[in-house]
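Hello,

I think I submitted the heme C job twice by accident. Can you confirm which output corresponds to this input? Input:
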Amino acid sequence: MSRPAERKAFPAGARRMFLGLGVMLASSLLAAAGLYADSSASPRQVSNIFKPLSTPAGEIHRLSLFVLGVTGAIFVVVFSLLVYAVVKFRKRGDDDGSEPPQVYGSNSLELAWTVIPGLIVLVLFLATARVIHAIQDAPQPPSAVEVTVIGHQFWWEFRYPALGVVTANELHVPVSDPAHPRPTYLTLLSADTDHSFWVPQLNGKTDLIPNRVNHMWMDPYQTGMFLGQCAQYCGTQHAKMLLRVYVDSPEEFDRWVEREKKPAQMNDAVSAGRRIFETTACLNCHAVSGTVANGLFGPDLTHLMSRETLASGAALNTHANLRLWIHDPEALKPGSLMPAMNLNDQDLDALVAYLETLK
Ligand code: HEC
Ligand SMILES: [Cu+2]
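Support: Only one job matched these inputs. Its output is below.
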């Protein structure tokens, strides 16, 4: 006798479910791999979410492993029972079509599957609340460095009010030795729409919201450069609103502050370029301290050459990229809010020569 068509190892519903789970697993693996994505400006640098390097990032990492462990155990138990039931009670060839015995109501079962999940949720809630409290209510020590971060479409403004420094896109902070903690406390603001500050190895995400003041802190315990990005869709060039955090040794950080505090260098050899900068619209949008340029719409250019990248990590800060950027910002960052100023080649060269003295 030939076997009826529907008599397969697993009914169609179960096969669809396995397929769905496979797709889910594959896509979450892909998403995890995506978090290793590197910055277009520097392909060697990767941001590793599995290697936290500051207290808040470490706390969040440990909590996520704990939650993953608990939910993973639940997944294994439920999935094993499910597979067992699907296989053991599948429809067989000798099925007579009658209903199995119907069982209603079991107080002990009902209690068990209400109380156990309730307890699991309570444990997860308490563990999460503890981490939120430890991070958000950490008192700010007097040694802390304070930075005001302002999100703009599509770049970051960094102000160090106590140090008299203003810069953009590349945040410098001192390393925080656990013996002499020197964390950095950030005040997060927005000039236009919602943004989100996210440097995975240093802390979780915190949004920058118009008319609201948010806070976050980090105490990186390793020097180096850490990549981050805007994690809240904020417009066309959200994907090129990258972030770099340079964790400097205390000496390096002090040297950096000393240099950034100074007004722009004056160099007579590039006075032609400077005149172009100060007589075109550049000065309405950009500030160069010590000159008449005091625009606030775009990044402060006083020490432009101390930055490794241009336009929030869209390109490396090289002569060719800088020239291209001034000539046509759209070429590097379509939709950026800096207009092309349509300068002729001679003016463009003079202007770029001037910008390159802003060390
Ligand atoms: C309407 C305002 C506006 C004008 C005018 C303007 N810019 Fe910009 N500029 C911006 C904005 C906004 C950005 C940031 C773009 C981004 O990263 O998305 C920017 C970025 C830059 C950068 C990159 C800075 C960095 O730290 O990455 C340079 C350099 C620059 N502008 C130079 C100039 C020069 C030179 C002129 C004049 C020829 C000029 N800009 C005119 C708004 C302006
Ligand atoms: Cu943004």
